[in-house]
Hints:
The protein is an alpha+beta fold. The protein has a five-stranded antiparallel beta sheet, with helices on both faces.
Amino acid sequence: MAVLEIRKYPDEVLKKKALPVENIDKDLQRLIDNMIETMYAASGIGLAAPQVGVSKRLIVIDVSTKDEKHPLIVLINPEITEADSFIDSEEGCLSVPGYTSTIKRAGRVVVKGLDRNGKSVHVEGTGLFARALQHEIDHLDGVLFVDRMSSIKREFFKKRYLKKTVVSSQQSAVRR
């Protein structure tokens, strides 16, 4: 297994709609294992294939905490079939490090897809798990959480985040 590079905003792969997974083969199993290792290494609770530069409809999620254990979820070609009880909550993203914002999401979702063995599954999520499912499925559609902010907040984010990124790049270049 390997820890993969997590693509950062504004990388183009993050804005593209991912392609459906056609074959569940050894290459896909290796990608799943690498995504899981990458998610844990980055201390994330979810990761979508586009975040590691792969345009496939594949997500991994583990919302376990030190006090509360949850199963690791692998979903291939996931689709939200039900969503209700919308709530606002703070959200961040491994592809937009160091930035969070309040985002409105469903408090409960039902998602259908395939598990890593190709078996059809339905999962119901509430709370943080529901939020993680929606967030990662958004990645498969080329949508980042910052795209769900109000236009004013989004413009503020772009100016602030891109300025911070440019300054950081310049400082890195000076140190070399």
